[in-house]
Automatic annotation (TrEMBL):
<dbReference type="InterPro" id="IPR013785">
    <property type="entry name" value="Aldolase_TIM"/>
</dbReference>
<protein>
    <recommendedName>
        <fullName>Radical SAM protein</fullName>
    </recommendedName>
</protein>
Length: 408
């Protein structure tokens, strides 16, 4: 049986122009990573400890409320790798602390793969708003990015219309709608830390109520973005991740807030699979309408400021997925090129099976599939002059294809 190290070496040889750090990142996300006891002890230090609050309400089996978890892993090139600590990975890497060397090592068995570190704990963690809300419950933190959850539930779950790969808001500890004063105070405190944050993303579970549908959700986002905007003059580097809204709602959001980019995630490139895997999105918007609205948004936000993503690998999942990786790859590249021609950044993230999702636990595609998708999407966007400034290596950390832009 091939080891992860042998697989990395084989793919480095086969794809010599592919960044070794992006390759390692893909491998780490695919296989996962667990902290050894020594590493877990070390990250209890205030420099690393993020706390036990999980703002997207995901139920992780291995997490304990008694011990803090760290933030994303940092590689030597400063890219960050977002790992869901505590998942039941079948063959994970180990992150170990070497007391003598004074560093963390990424290991496979006894073999040292790489030296790693963790994103430092933000200065605002541990503080509370004037309402007594823990500030760390309001935002997920990446290297230089804050991700806010405006609505901590998703109404697609109410009738079983949730996306088949989604495990958000399954822990039973969500807060519903966020308080705007809490948001204002948290952002106000976070930006006091010099040079720490350069981007703010706002997202949340889907709320289709209102007439037309999503109107109440759009109004909620306007309130939240306005609360954030009280900390800035004019527009601020930001992204709204939400459903594909009709143009009149998008215009309201853009004109009444300081938002700079928009990301309606289509999740699945193939139309038939979209209907099966994203039944709520199909029911309330529809595949073709989702695409049309995404392209229309370029008129409002400008070329390169509209994004969408696919959950790469879910298109190969049983029982309805593609039977071959070549077919799945073609599906993703075809839609990426269509979007790129129309000024939209089409990106990927790695699908991680989860027990709480409808697809459940099942085998993931081989690592090489993720290399091919990552390389293909990057090359298409480059051909059309598109560059990701919102979802690059130092911000979200979920989009390996954007990390490749550092080589340009």
């Amino acid at each position: 049986m091939q080891t992860k190290y042998e697989e990395l070496e084989q793919l480095r040889s086969k794809y010599p122009d592919f960044s070794p750090f992006v390759l390692l990142k893909l491998s780490m996300i695919r296989y996962g990573a667990r902290l050894t006891d020594a590493a877990l002890d070390r990250v209890q230090d205030p420099y690393y400890s993020f706390g036990a609050v999980e703002p997207f309400g995901i139920d992780f089996v291995g997490r304990t409320e008694k011990r803090a978890m760290p933030g994303p892993i940092l590689l030597r090139d400063s890219s960050n790798v977002y790992i869901n600590y505590g998942e039941n990975y079948s063959d994970p890497y180990d992150v170990d602390w070497d007391e003598d060397a004074g560093v963390f090592f990424l290991k496979e068995g006894d073999r040292i793969i790489e030296t790693v570190d963790f994103v430092p704990r933000p200065a605002f963690f541990g503080k509370k708003t004037s309402r007594g809300t823990p500030m760390e419950a309001l935002a997920d933190v990446r290297a230089q990015l804050l991700i806010l959850t405006a609505f901590q539930r998703c109404r697609f779950w109410e009738k079983g219309d949730q996306c088949a790969f989604c495990a958000f808001f399954t822990s039973g500890h969500t807060m519903g709608e966020v308080d705007c004063q809490d948001i204002y105070e948290m952002i106000h405190e976070a930006i006091k830390e010099p040079g720490r944050f350069s981007e703010i993303h706002v997202s949340g579970g889907t709320d289709f109520t209102g007439e037309p549908p999503f109107e109440l959700e759009a109004e909620r986002y306007i309130r939240v973005l306005q609360a954030i905007g009280r900390n800035f003059k004019g527009r601020f580097s930001s992204q709204l991740m939400c459903p594909a809204y009709p143009k009149h709602l998008l215009k309201r959001i853009y004109e009444q807030t300081g938002i700079t980019s928009y990301c309606p995630n289509i999740e699945v490139a193939d139309e038939a699979l979209f209907r099966k895997l994203c039944p709520g999105k199909e029911k309330w918007v529809g595949y073709r309408e989702w695409i049309r609205r995404t392209v229309d948004a370029v008129e409002i936000f400008g070329k390169g400021n509209v994004y969408t993503q696919v959950v790469t690998g879910a298109e190969l999942a049983e029982p309805d997925g593609f039977r071959s990786m070549d077919e799945a790859l073609e599906s993703n590249l075809k839609l990426c090129e269509f979007f790129a021609k129309n000024g939209v950044n089409f990106m990927s993230m790695v699908w991680r099976p989860h027990k709480a999702a409808r697809l459940g636990f099942q085998p993931m595609p081989p690592l090489e599939y993720y290399v091919r998708v990552t390389k293909g999407l990057y090359e298409i966007r480059k051909e059309y002059g598109l560059v990701s400034v919102n979802d690059d290596y130092k911000h979200c950390g979920n989009h390996p294809d954007a990390d490749l832009e550092r080589m340009d």
